[in-house]
Description:
Layout: H1 15-30, E1 43-48, H2 54-65, E2 69-73, H3 87-94, E3 100-105, H4 110-117, E4 122-127, H5 133-147, E5 154-158, H6 165-174, E6 181-185, H7 194-198, E7 204-208, E8 220-223, H8 234-240, H9 248-254, E9 259-261, H10 282-287, H11 289-300
Parallel strand pairs: 1-2, 1-3, 3-4, 5-6, 5-8, 6-7, 8-9
Amino acid sequence: MVSNKDLISIRDLSREDIEHILKAAKDIDENPAKYSNLLSGKILATLFFEPSTRTMLSFQSAMSRLGGKTIGFSDSKTTSTAKGETLADTIRMVESYSDIIAIRHPHEGSARLAAEYSKIPVINAGDGTNQHPTQTLLDLYTIKKKLGKIDGLKIALIGDLKYGRTVHSLLNALSKYENVKIKLIAPDTLQMPKEIIEDSKGPEIETGESIDGALKGMDVAYVTRIQKERFPDLEEYESVKGKYRITREMVEAAGKKLMLMHPLPRVDEIEPDVDTLEQAKYFEEAKNGVPIRMAIIAMLLGKIK
Length: 305
């Protein structure tokens, strides 16, 4: 990962780049004081045109823990976008006030467009149904931190695989590792897009619709919510909502070796009584967003080589 560049897609990173980021995050995680003033005087702009809790707050926390400051917005209706200002003009203005930008936007390709107009580094914090690279990096960090490796794992991706940008990025990233076996469990109408599968050559991929027995034999089960806001047809959403629900009995039957993940927020796809099980790692997963995003910000600003 080269300093003074952008992070727009996980496809732009090699396995070596990914491992370098994970290694830096691990050092930050274990030695936070060492990085506490690394970005003193620097400013991160968080431009969130879509709702966010974890991503926005963890970016802000990451910058604060690096000694920097944050400006930005979480509701585009309060900005000049509501007056008709283009994304390109917004970026041109914001780069004058900050040193690095994290942007979330409902339209695919918006982050790359922002990077084309920006003279400062841009981080994609989610663009429509396309990519969410920092989420994928924290997912990989969580897996490696708990299981010690990524190569050779059996991983189930469950839920909304059509509109879920987190699983699109994750499948792309897993294709860079060796002997990974992937099980894609989703309703037929919400299966992983063919172009994402074709762009993720490498893992052995199996597809299916049934949740019954899907967790058995898996090292990781990555569950996603059915994303109501992405559906062009509400009736289509109503036909699939609540179709997959992870229960305590299902997780216990899968055994202690299973690691249960979720990018959050959840709706009803994981029952609350699963939270206390040893296999449930989704809140820890969210916490890991801070060291990962600290590493990315510092690298893009040239403070970590």
